[in-house]
Amino acid sequence: MLCIFAGERSFVDNTEDITEADSNDITEHPHDDKTRPYLCTVCDKRFTTKTCLKRHKQLHSEGELYLCTQCEKRFSSQQYLRQHMNVHSSKYKCTECGKCFGTNKDLTRHRRSHSGEKPFECSVCSKRFTQAGNLVSHSRIHSGEKPYKCRMCDKAFSESAPLNRHMRVHTGDKPYKCRMCDMAFSQSGHLNTHMRVHTGDKPYKCSLCNKSFCQSSNLQSHKRHVHSNRRPYHCPYCGKLFKTKDKLKCHVHIHTGAKPYSCRHCSERFTFYVQLKTHLLKSHNEGTWFTCHICQKKFSRNDHLKTHVLQHEGVKQYVCSDCPKRFYTTISLKQHVLVHSDVKQFGCILCDKSFKRKSNVKKHFKRCSCAPNFRYVLFPS
Q: By residue range, what is the domain housing residue 364?
């Protein structure tokens, strides 16, 4: 029987696009449990029988010989051509949507998408499915079975489609190519996200301010950094609280004295990467200045330029979630939200007192009773 899966998508939507190559490809069987011991030495595809492997090898040696006169698709056997021709006839045609199929069995499966019939029920959780293969795949959630194993590493998968996506990590294959530039991707979802670079589409909008993002992960990061007061990560040296692990990691360098970023032109080293970039630009003329188109002022960082331009335009895009006040920068907003919060993220390293603002802890430190002989302490800018 001819399998009618196409790529990683359901056969319901792609039957009319079937080719002989699709029917023999292991990647086209994401929902069955058949073993495929017969390996094609040319392309590494596997098959259930020697006959299927032999038929597949014709694609490499002879090419696709039989031409469809309706759509110019080619097939390696008359059998597959005849089956394909049913797509162009009304022999197996859905009366609901007019879509045609190669076999009556394919049409029967498709009709369930209109009727809502789900005859295959999971005996563990009672979830129902339109196809037996989907039930088999679902049952692995309960059993934990992962029969599809990567031959390059130890990873295993419950279905073949994720395995085939994973294999691209090893092969470097990037079949999804951008039609606007030279970029290529291993997964279709990554290409879809990349296309927003060209279209400018930013479908993920922040409900608290006017900013939009091309990826959901960027929106979630924005909400954590700008609008959330939650700071689950604390410094073991001074007790300062942070929203992310990365910010805590950078902060700890202040206490340890670590300077992991070194200049390749001189002996200077820096605590933060942004300090290195600024140094390269100012001292070695490496990089690009960012110039304001209104007043021609130059900046070493693009985010500083953007903030500067907003002040020319009078745009205050950062809105406090607790009151109507608006701000030009996230830093200004962060300083303001402390008014509404009980969080005291700046602590004295000599006593138990803590403060909402850095300026207050600096003043306290100078007169802290626990440090009569200390004259200064290093605070990050």
A: 344-381
